[in-house]
Amino acid sequence: MAPASWLAEQGYSMQLLYQYTKSGWLKKTSRGSYIRGDANPSWQGAVLGLQKLGKAPFHIGGITSFNLQGYAHYLPFSDAQTIYLYGTQRLPAWFKNIKLEQKFCVMKKPSFDAVGLRSIPSGIKEWEMVVSSPERAILELLYQVKPDGLGFEFAAEIFEGLTTLRPSLVNELLTLCKNIRVKRLFLFLTNHFDHPWAKHIKKDGLELGTGRMQIVKNGVFDNEFLITVPKEYHAG
Questions:
Q1: Per-residue model confidence as pLDDT tens digits over 200-219
Q2: Strands, E, within the chain: which ranges?
């Protein structure tokens, strides 16, 4: 999808856009965006219009990033109807007005600037979308794990499959992470699953706070990381 502002930069006047729309060469997808007349609107096209043409600093993260990279398709929460976008700015009006089968959920936290982002094929021409790497996506996902939020067990199943994370990138992201609950939960799961990369994680110097935190209701308290976890994940 092409924002009208981008089309204007390419030399397309509003009058010309009107004529192209009237002739069927273009179709309006919202007030302020267009696609070719023979194309169908898609969430991938909307994201490309936002990222590539609109130059907006948003990326696909969390569970959507895992879905796109093949980590979560077999899990019950892998709902492709919700696309998780991460960014701290306001979405442009043209994007918010798009009507699609999928819905976009914008998350502002956690934020790590551009650290841990990567590009993957979009399925549209040769264009690529910007998404979170698995190292960044797991921290974004853990941010949603709360007693009234995403389930601990679901996040743990995703974590169990992350056998090839890059410890250097994980350490950089943990240093940038300002959310104590996310860091404690990440380190707890790191200890629990003990993947080969776990021994390279640097815990010293991380700000983990001192107060107790409830991650799950009716859980068992973990004395090392001061969080409540499901009994089946607690070592005793």
A1: 999 988 999 999 999 999 89
A2: 2-3, 26-30, 33-36, 59-60, 82-86, 103-107, 117-121, 128-132, 220-222, 227-229
